[in-house]
Amino acid sequence: MKPIQMVDTKTQYLKIKEEVDKGIFEVLESAQYIGGAKVNEFSEALNVYHNSAFTITCANGTDALQIALMALDLQPGDEVITPSFTYIATTEVVALLRLKPVFVEVNPKTFCIEPDAIRNAITPKTKAIVPVHLYGHAAPMEEIMQIAKEYNLYVVEDNAQAIGCNYTFNNGTTKKTATIGHIGCTSFYPSKNLGAYGDGGAIFTQDAMLAEKLKMIANHGQKTRYIHDIVGCNSRLDAIQAAILTVKLKQLDNYIVARNNAANYYNKAFANHTKITTPFVASYSNHVYHQYTLILDGVNRDGLVNYLAEKKIPSMIYYPIPGHKQKVFETIGSEKYNLEITDWLTEKVISLPIHTELETDQLEYITTEVLNYINNH
C-alpha cells in the first residue's frame, strides 16, 4: 500500500504530466509570464465551465475576496455578515478593509451559514453577506439571495472549497456556486479541488459594471495603462499557473467523481455507527468533497488523531478555533457572541484524507483503523 496523504498532488500530476509540462514550456518559450495567451485561455475556459458572464483571474483566493469587497464601495464600519466556522481568510479581508465582520451561526448538518441567523443579524449598518460553501457543499443560496433582495444587500460567495459544485433552485434550474451572488470568489491553492502548482484565484460576476471595476482593482485601479481612476492592488494570475490550470480544468469533473467515490466508500463503512455522523448532502446541492468531515459523538477526538498518526494515517481538524474566538477580532467585541453550534462543531469534527488518488486498499485501511479505535475506546 502506498503512503497515505491528505492530498496527493504528485500522483495526480504524474497522470497529466505530459500535457502540463507542454503547457509550462510553451509559457517559457513565449516569455509571456504575466498575462498573455495562456491566462486568457484559462480565463475563457473557466468562464465557459461556470457559464458565467465575466471571470477575472487574480493572484490568490484571499485577494479575490478582498477585491470583491473593494468593488462594492463599502465604508469603514459597514457590517458584513459571515459564518464564524470557516477559514480566517473569509473574515480577515473584512477587517483589513476596516469593515466589521458580524459572525453568525451555521447549519449543524451542512456546516454552511444559516439563513435565519442572517436575518437576525441584519442592522441598518449591514451591507453585505459572505456565505461560505464549506468543505465542498453549497450554502442555501436561494434563501440567501431572497434575504439580500429584501434588505438591499450584496452577496459575495466564498467558493474556495466548492469549485464545480452545482446548486439546484426550487424551479429545477441549476447554477454553479460562485455565479449566484453578486460576486463569487475562488482559490487555486494547490490542495484545492482545482489546484495550481503555486497560488491563484478568480472572481466571477454576472454584472458588466462590476466586472469592469473588479478588473481595474486587480490591476492597480487602471483601465488604461498609467491612468489610475480608483484605488486598486496588484493581483495577477501568472501564465505558468494558468497553463497548468487549463489542463486540470478539463479533469475537474472527473476529479469530483473520484472524490465522491472515496466519500461513498467512507459513508458505507461508517453507516449507522452511533458515534459517527457522515457528511450530509442537502437536496439543493451536490457535494464536491474538498474535505470529508465527520462529526464524532462520545469519541476522544485527540486520541483518535494521535492513534491515526501512529498508524500513518493523516487527519485534520478544520477549524479548531472559530472566527469569533480569534484574538484578532477581540477589538470588535467578539466575546459577546454565543454561537453554540459553531463551538460544538469545533469540538466534534474531524476530516479524513480525501483526494483523487485514494485507492481501495488505502480506504479500507483508513476506515478499519478509525472503527478499530472508536469501537475499542
Record the SSE blueprint.
Elements lengths: L8 H7 L1 H14 L6 H14 L3 E5 L2 H10 L8 E5 L5 H8 L3 E5 L10 H7 L4 E4 L11 H11 L2 E5 L7 E3 L5 E3 L6 E5 L13 E5 L2 H11 L3 E3 L2 E2 L10 H11 L2 H19 L5 E2 L14 E5 L4 H10 L29 H9 E4 L7 H17 L1
Parallel strand pairs: 2-3, 2-4, 4-5, 5-8
Antiparallel strand pairs: 1-9, 6-7, 8-9, 10-11, 12-13, 13-14
Helix pairs in contact: 2-9, 3-9, 4-5, 10-13
Structure report:
With 377 residues, this protein is an alpha/beta fold. The chain has two domains: 9-104 and 112-249, Aspartate Aminotransferase, domain 2, CATH 3.40.640.10; 252-376, Aspartate Aminotransferase, domain 1 (Alpha-Beta Complex). It is built from 13 helices and 14 strands. It has helices at residues 9-15, 17-30, 37-50, 61-70, 89-96, 115-121, 141-151, 208-218, 239-249, 252-270, 301-310, 340-348, 360-376; strands at 54-58, 79-83, 100-104, 126-129, 154-158, 166-168, 174-176, 183-187, 201-205, 222-224, 227-228, 276-277, 292-296, 349-352. The strands form four sheets. It has a seven-stranded mixed sheet, with helices on both faces. It has a three-stranded antiparallel sheet with strand order 12-13-14. A two-stranded antiparallel ribbon has the order 6-7. Helix 5 links the parallel strand 2 (79-83) and strand 3. Helix 2 (17-30) packs antiparallel against helix 9, helix 3 packs parallel to helix 9 (239-249) and helix 4 runs parallel beside helix 5. The longest helix is centred in the C-terminal third of the chain and has 19 residues, at 252-270. The mean pLDDT is 96.
